[in-house]
Amino acid sequence: MTTFPWVYRAHSLLKKVGLGCLHAVNLACAFHLFKENVGSPCLMDGVSMFPTFDSSGEIAIESIVSYRLFPHTLSRGELISLKSPLNPNRIICKRVIGLPGDTICVDPTGLKAPSTEHIVVPHGHVWIAGDNAAWSIDSRDYGPVPMGLIRGKIVARVYPFGRFKIFSPEITYIDQRLGSERDTVDIKDVASRGVQ
Predict the structure, then answer these.
(1) pLDDT at 188 over 80
(2) Taking the CB of residue 117, how many other CB atoms lie within 10 A of it?
């Protein structure tokens, strides 16, 4: 039986191509796992978080692992990414205004509800709002948001480079003891001043 040299070359070439494809698939899987479980850059667009994020689109870093490992560290004023309660295929960015047990003024601006209306955030939920209250669809529209929809925390704005910023919880809240140990949080301060 005669063997042809091209068979060995073809076998060697197929082996190299197969290994290359396997490495590419491994790399793609590793990237996907990192993006879905650890964190990644994300594009911010829309006017609901203006002036924190411009409507033209900026790039921020989303930290998923920090929230998944330590969900109890979520605090008022933090920027979070979450699945939209109205469209689960869409990821949105909002600011945490109230935590479970807080008494929240539903809409201090009076645009969507009377400014005298208050609600107690139920267990396992948060109250979220956009910094640009006039253009934001948030908890004033759909109520308290289940914490299970939260993906992670927005930790920094990295692009444009001139506006680089590491975010920390920034919020003004009023602690009033109205016969209980709950906090009353006023989102008017956040909506009117934004984060520079």
Answers:
(1) no
(2) 14
Rounded Cα–Cα distance for residues 140 and 176 (Å)? 22
pLDDT at 178: 47
Residues linked to residue 165 through DSSP beta bridges, in sequence order = 157
With pLDDT > 90 as the criterion, what percentage of the chain qualifies?
28
182 three-state secondary structure: coil
Helix, strand or coil for residue 68?
helix
Active site residues: 48, 94
The beta-carbon contacts of 84-89 under 8 Å, at least 24 apart in sequence, are 85/142, 85/145, 85/146, 85/149, 86/137, 86/142
Whether the pLDDT of residue 160 is over 70: the answer is yes
pLDDT above 60: residue 180 = no
Question: How long a stretch of residues is the chain?
Answer: 196
Tokens of 39: 């964190």
pLDDT of residue 148: 92
* Cβ atoms of 119 and 104 closer than 8 Å: yes
As a whole number, mean pLDDT of residues 9-34 equals 84
Dist. CA 183–CA 159, nearest whole Å: 35
- The runs of H, that is alpha helices, within 38-94 are 64-69
Taking the chain, what is the end-to-end CA distance rounded to the nearest angstrom? 79
pTM of the model: 0.72
Question: What is the largest distance, in Å, between two alpha-carbon atoms of the chain?
Answer: 96
